What we know:
- The chain is mainly α.
- Helix content is 69%, strand content 0%.
- The protein has one domain.
- It has two helices and no strands.
- The model has no long low-confidence stretch (mean pLDDT 93).
Amino acid sequence: MWSLRRENSKDNFRLIYQQRIKAEKENPMPKGPQRDAIELRMKLRDIKLAETIQK
Length: 55
């Protein structure tokens, strides 16, 4: 469960800063297939996390 949250956090930083850790200045990832793939991966993790919490 914690690893799912940690990976979502890292992916979120990647969307905002284009790197896996927080930077001084935001540099959002532009729209495109790579951003779509990360957003889809995050949604799938959210679903899996919700299922884990319900058990």
